[in-house]
Design brief:
mainly alpha, globular, single chain, 439 residues
Length: 439
């Protein structure tokens, strides 16, 4: 029996969050904070890791990409499981597993050991974002989800802002090995908090449509070919390409490309995340304000986020037109952060079009498609940097390529994200199947 059929269904329109919703939001925010801190640590420690293990840029890029090798597959698998089992248990299991995977870094580490641990860590973290979002949406109705989604999404930015100075200090004064250990300890502490205070929400969305037996369902083939979801995947893919480069290559760019010291370069690595934090919170607030004011989802979620992604795509190619390090840094920060609202918009769009009994799986599938950008981007940048006339020229080319991807994908989102029209289309198809008996 599915989760949806076991729970009491609140078919009336819910107009406010459930009691305790913001407390759970805070715990899930901390979950994402730790989640992104351990993604960031490899990029932050890139130079000492490359020096100690004698890695080429291409090898280091492979380590960055390795994190995402199993990331999409585990996300989809656990997403389908989370359709039927409590999200609370899934979040706890993930946090414990990824925390334990940090501790092998305290011993003797080789390229192969680091590669294997990053692959396994990616498998443990792949379901984190979709399952966390699914858990969050059990506490808030659709019209009030933009702000809490933005808050949880900023667990990533604040995780970097809070963790980077501390981790960089550990790297400089102790070693990069202990930076991994600190992340593992933080993850286990969160697991203890969640074990005692984490709860499962009971809010159930009104169904998109109903089968004869009353169980809400839309065939996955209809959802996966829905133009809004396809366009959201395209826009999210390019944006995640940029996110993966930020996690893996931003600090090396500052230290290896622009000549900053490890201490300064590491500390400056928080700047894109601070900018992204402001953009996401402001974008989430504006999106929810527009929606509450009667604006369509196409405008408040699709056009708003897609136009911002396109703006980032226009800015990034300018990075190769200046030789001033401070100006290059400003262009990179602006270009990679201005479109961050897309990470709020995508789960909102998917949730709007997906019955709750299928939501965890669809959030996982879409997130997995988006994170394929993370599989390709770090290794591709490593190849471009290694083959560049200079290291700096290679970096600039890699970020210009990102700009082209953002511009093209933002245009796709602007043209094809039409959730209201697609919701009507999905409901009409389901009604036709009921009357004709066609599966």
């Amino acid at each position: 029996m599915s989760e949806g059929s076991r729970e009491k269904r609140h078919v009336a329109v819910q107009v406010r969050p459930l009691k305790g919703a913001w407390g759970i939001t805070f715990l899930i925010f901390l979950f994402m904070l730790v989640n992104f801190a351990d993604k960031m640590v490899v990029g932050l420690a890139a130079k000492p890791i490359m020096e100690e293990l004698k890695l080429t840029p291409e090898q280091f890029g492979l380590i960055g990409s390795a994190f995402f090798f199993l990331f999409p597959f585990s996300a989809i698998l656990v997403g389908f499981v989370a359709n039927r089992l409590p999200a609370r248990n899934a979040l706890l299991a993930m946090a414990i597993f990824w925390s334990l995977l940090q501790f092998p870094m305290l011993g003797l580490v080789s390229f192969e050991v680091l590669l294997a641990c990053r692959i396994l860590l990616g498998a443990a973290e792949g379901p984190a974002n979709p399952v966390a979002t699914h858990a969050l949406y059990k506490w808030f109705p659709d019209s009030l989800r933009a702000v809490p989604t933005a808050v949880v999404a900023q667990g990533s930015a604040i995780g970097v802002v809070v963790a980077v100075p501390a981790l960089n200090w550990i790297i400089v004064h102790h070693s990069w090995h202990w930076a991994f250990g600190a992340i593992g300890i933080a993850g286990l502490l969160w697991s203890i908090l969640w074990f005692f205070f984490g709860r499962e929400g009971t809010l159930v969305d009104p169904p998109l449509t109903q089968r004869v037996d009353g169980e809400p369902r839309v065939p996955y083939r209809d959802l996966l070919t829905c133009p809004t979801i396809v366009a959201a995947c395209c826009t999210g893919f390019a944006s995640y390409w940029g996110l993966a480069l930020g996690l893996t290559w931003f600090t090396p760019y500052l230290v290896d490309g622009l000549g900053f010291s490890q201490t300064l370069g590491g500390n400056l690595s928080v700047l894109p995340w601070i900018a992204g934090l402001v953009v996401v919170l402001a974008g989430g607030w504006l999106s929810q304000r527009l929606k509450a004011g009667g604006a369509s989802s196409r405008l408040s979620r699709g056009i708003l986020a897609s136009a911002a992604v396109m703006a980032g795509g226009c800015i990034l190619p300018l990075i190769g037109l200046t030789s001033t390090p401070d100006l290059k840094l400003a262009i990179l920060i602006a270009g990679t952060s201005i479109g961050s609202t897309i990470f709020v918009a995508v789960p909102l769009l998917v949730s709007e079009l997906t019955p709750q009994s299928q939501r965890a799986a669809m959030l996982a599938i879409v997130n997995s498609i988006m994170t394929l950008g993370g599989v390709i981007a770090p290794f591709a940048m490593g190849v471009v940097v290694q083959d560049g006339a200079t290291r700096l020229a290679g970096y600039d080319t890699g970020f210009a390529i990102l700009g082209g991807l953002l511009l093209a994908s933002g245009l796709i989102g602007l043209l094809f994200i039409r959730p209201e029209a697609d919701r009507r289309r999905l409901a009409a198809r389901a009604a036709l199947r009921r009357t004709t008996g066609i599966p």
